[in-house]
Amino acid sequence: MTVTTRFAPSPTGRLHVGNIRTALHNWMHARKAGGRFLLRIDDTDAERSREEYVDAIRADLAWLGLDPDGEERQSARLDRYEAAFERLRAAGRVYRCYETAQELDLKRKILLGRGLPPVYDRAALALTEDDHAAKAAAGVAPHWRFLLDHQEPITWDDGVRGPQKFDPAQLSDPVVRRADGSWLYMLPSAVDDLDMGVTDVLRGEDHVSNTAVQIQMFNALADDGRIPRFAHEALLVGSEGKLSKRLGSLGCDAFRERGIEPEALVALLARIGTSLPVEPIADRDTLVETFDLATFGRAPAKFDEAELERINTAIVHQLDYDAVADRLPQGMDAAGWHAVRPNLATVSDAGEWWRLVTGPIAQPPFPDEDRAYLAEAARLLEWGEDPWHALTGALKAATGRKGKALFLPLRQALTGMDHGPDMAGLLPLIGETEARVRLERAAKE
Ligand code: GLU
Question: Which of 40, 291, 373, 396 is in Cβ range 3.0-4.6 Å of 8 for a Cys bridge?
Fold first, then answer.
């Protein structure tokens, strides 16, 4: 069976770094196996779902380079959930309940107060048809719970956590449908995973208990008895080791504004929380080849923004001109990019260095002996294949200067700065005429 994964965000907000990591791992898992990666929009909550977030999710995935092989929407599949629900109803696997949120809360508190797990007591199972008729006559509609089979032990071999075992009697029968007929997350998700041939469900460990109850839904609905494999990755925490609010608000826009390249985010999120080293790997294929659930640890994955910045700088230094051309200042060509690239922390810094080439530049005042030296430089300037090495070679021979005394006044005269990109790359970009003008001006002032 073709390995099929899915990323299933609810379009009730923007993706944050935790969702992005889940999306990435599902994408890598599918790509490594030559399988399919689906985007499933979990929009059964009509009230909170927004079309603008659906668009933002697509745009974010595109920016990250996580191309889905198909897109599905839960709101377009309500008839499928209805059909599955009818099957479960016919099989006696769903039942009607009427407890209010307050009543349930009270039941929970009483159990907790006695030191017992807050499991739903199935009181509604004892209702008779007359009781249901009375509720209906009073205009009270039921919500529906899935009936867990207490005789069917729940086990799975988790791709990250290893063998898992749950006693169904210790779990509450999950509510699958609200009184207004709308769906909670559990059942539609299981129906979709089966319908769409999802072979691997990879999600955060906050879903472990959902998986436990969903496994019985899968078993109740899977015609061929085949259900997905499950893997739950440890959650993402901030560098201080805590679940942080900040992580929940950090999304693609914020990263893009800070000059973080998608490759940097991907390289970091691909590896944190695993036993593989975090490295500035811009090549997706390398990341995909080394992706392996067996390397995932149980400890929370630490997301360190300083580490992201270091990775980003190293990635920027590897980016090809074609990858950045549309973000560079007007007139900056491949030679310009290669000249300034080693000096950048972010691509947008390129503009600052490019101004040294295009000018105007502000030169510092020079002492008399340097002015004489720069006048000599203007005379000796000759244009060829490698004007910088030709110029410094000729000046060294003519003046006996070396090291800083040889190079620094030239750099200052030609760029106005005492540091910056390699002059051998910059000088050809400044051009012969402008270089001579700058040297002569520095010699005069
Ligand atoms: N919409 C669910 C969520 O965002 C999907 C969880 C899942 O992967 O099944 O939590």
Answer: 40
Q: Could you tell me the sign of the dihedral formed by the alpha carbons of 292, 295, 301, 307, in that order?
A: negative
Of 289, 364, 369, 42, nearest to 190 by C-alpha is 42
Distance 206 CA to ligand 1 centre (A): 10
Coil, strand or helix at 37: strand
Tokens linked to 266: 């991907």
Q: What is the atom index within ligand 1 of the atom nearest the CA of 201?
A: 8
Residues of the chain with CATH 1.10.10.350: 359-444
Q: Does the pLDDT of residue 39 top 90, yes or no?
A: yes
CA distance 338 to 62: 26
In the reported structure, the alpha carbon of residue 243 is separated from the centroid of ligand 1 by a whole-number distance in angstroms of 19
- DSSP letter assigned to residue 44: -
How many other β-carbons are positioned within 10 Å of the β-carbon of residue 332? Answer: 22
DSSP for residue 296: B
- Alpha-helical regions (H) of 33-128: 51-64, 78-90, 101-113
Q: For residue 325, which of 343, 309, 338, 342 has the smallest C-alpha distance?
A: 338
Q: pTM value?
A: 0.91
* pLDDT for 245 beyond 90: no
Q: Is the CB of 210 under 6 A from ligand 1?
A: no
d(CA 242, CA 113): 29
Is the CB–ligand 1 distance for residue 8 below 6 Å?
Answer: yes
Contact indicator for 43, 240 with CB cutoff of 8 Å: no
Rg, Å, the chain Cα set: 32
Query: Class assignment of domain 359-444?
Result: mainly alpha
Distance 212 CA to ligand 1 centre (A): 14
8-state DSSP, 3: -
Q: Is 10 in the pocket of ligand 1 (CB under 6 A)?
A: yes
Does the beta carbon of 346 lie inside 6 Å of ligand 1?
Answer: no
Percent of residues, the chain, with pLDDT higher than 90: 96
Burial readout 310-326 (b: 16 or more C-beta within 10 A, e: otherwise): bbbbebbeebeeeebee
Give 275's Cβ-side CA count (13 Å radius).
Answer: 8
Q: How far apart, in whole angstroms, are the C-alpha atoms of residue 345 and residue 314?
A: 8
Among 63, 22, 9, residue whose Cα is nearest residue 270: 22
Average pLDDT for the chain: 96
Decide whether any atom of ligand 1 lies within 6 Å of the 42 Cβ.
Answer: yes
Ligand 1 centroid vs 317 CA: distance in angstroms?
36
Closest-CA residue, ligand 1 atom 6, reads 8
CA 370 to chain centre: 53
- pLDDT number for residue 344: 96
